């Protein structure tokens, strides 16, 4: 199992509230992931028209965009470095909330046949709504954890095993060209029913698609989309310094107390009911009665993050279902049949 660690920042950077931010030199304004202004913004509603974009660009015919800014959004005591990356797209690679972009890192590799070939595509869930962090439809954002391998015997980083794409993105300076594909994905889309409760369960950078959700639900004035349901986010990280977009989340909780709920599972700071570490499934289980009731009444439940999150969650849900006299497999199949169950893990 690899260990993640944030190395020293590279390139020209400044600090905002303890965070590293790569600043575009000639920009008159800089988007930032650190915001407490959750007021509704006017957006160009032409992006509401037409069919859902899908695979507009491919590996053979990719899209060339440029990095606007890179901001480290984790604190010094986090178990790894996560960056919020804003990309200038000029609105030419549109997407819907819940979709992903492919990124092809520069350079080549030697494949199993000894041939030099381009690096493969890495998929990243998009962390902004279709209107971007500037609400003009001209940018898109990614939430990327820097992948660094630390040798368990020496305790030192092995540069040969670092994540090629994540380090390229986290080290990118403003203006860096980025090769993209997509958008892809149909699993994590918002439901047509704007009154349906949304139960979103994330670990780490799995929060990315849910940021696109809450921005659309609460921070944009879209005449044809008025969210009136409950938005309930469960977020699992190691400690408080590993929280992502917390300022924005706290502002939403304050401004929409009847519609927005936020629960953290901090595995290295909190204890579960049995006195063990608080993992995401433990926090969800605390509210299992409410969650099962909401699902019985049309709620949609979303899961996004590392695939290792799902076995513990499924075991917990199966145990709860059994205690309620339900057949777990039949219960989940019913949710899937009604399109209330959405899982995208990696």
From TrEMBL:
Residues covered by the FAD-binding FR-type domain: 60-190
Listed InterPro entries: FAD-bd_FR_type, Flavoprot_Pyr_Nucl_cyt_Rdtase, FNR, FNR_nucleotide-bd, FNR_plant_Cyanobacteria, OxRdtase_FAD/NAD-bd, Riboflavin_synthase-like_b-brl
Any single Gene Ontology cellular-component annotation: chloroplast
Keyword Flavoprotein: yes
Cofactor annotation: FAD
Single annotated GO MF: ferredoxin-NADP+ reductase activity
Binding site for NADP(+): 125, 145, 205, 267-268, 277, 305-306, 344
Keywords per UniProt: FAD, Flavoprotein, NADP, Oxidoreductase
Top enzyme class: oxidoreductase
Annotated localization: Plastid, Chloroplast
Reaction catalysis annotation: 2 reduced [2Fe-2S]-[ferredoxin] + NADP(+) + H(+) = 2 oxidized [2Fe-2S]-[ferredoxin] + NADPH
E.C. numbers: 1.18.1.2
Similarity field: Belongs to the ferredoxin--NADP reductase type 1 family.
UniProt name for this protein: Ferredoxin--NADP reductase, chloroplastic
Organism: Volvox africanus
């Amino acid at each position: 199992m690899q260990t993640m660690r944030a190395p020293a920042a590279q390139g020209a950077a400044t600090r905002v509230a303890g965070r590293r931010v790569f600043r575009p030199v000639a920009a008159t304004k800089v988007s930032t992931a650190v915001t407490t202004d959750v007021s509704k913004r006017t957006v160009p509603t032409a992006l509401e028209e037409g069919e859902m974009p899908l695979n507009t660009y491919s590996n053979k015919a990719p899209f060339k965009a440029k990095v606007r800014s890179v901001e480290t959004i984790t604190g010094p005591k986090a178990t790894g470095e996560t960056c919020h990356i804003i990309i200038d797209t000029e609105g030419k690679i549109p997407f819907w909330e819940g979709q992903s972009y492919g990124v092809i890192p520069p350079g080549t590799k030697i494949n199993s046949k000894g041939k030099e070939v381009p690096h493969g595509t890495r998929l990243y869930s998009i962390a902004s709504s279709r209107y971007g962090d500037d609400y003009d439809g001209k940018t898109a954002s990614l939430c990327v954890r820097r992948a660094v391998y630390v040798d368990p015997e020496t305790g030192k980083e092995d540069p040969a095993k670092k994540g090629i794409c994540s380090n390229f993105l986290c080290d990118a300076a403003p203006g860096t060209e980025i090769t993209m594909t997509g958008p892809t994905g149909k699993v994590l889309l918002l439901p047509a029913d704007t009154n349906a409760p949304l139960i979103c369960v994330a670990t780490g950078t799995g929060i990315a698609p849910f940021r696109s959700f809450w921005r659309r639900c609460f921070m944009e004035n879209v005449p044809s989309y008025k969210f009136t349901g409950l938005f309930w986010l469960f977020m699992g990280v190691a400690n408080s310094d590993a929280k992502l977009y917390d300022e924005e989340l706290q502002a939403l909780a304050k401004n929409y107390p009847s519609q927005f709920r936020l629960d953290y599972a901090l595995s290295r700071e909190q204890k579960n009911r049995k006195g063990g570490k608080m993992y995401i499934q433990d926090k969800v289980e605390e509210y299992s009665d409410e969650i099962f009731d909401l699902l019985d009444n049309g709620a949609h439940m979303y899961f996004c993050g590392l695939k290792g999150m799902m076995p513990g969650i499924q075991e917990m849900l199966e145990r709860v279902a059994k205690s309620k006299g339900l057949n777990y497999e039949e219960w989940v199949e019913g949710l899937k049949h009604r399109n209330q169950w959405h899982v995208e893990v990696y």
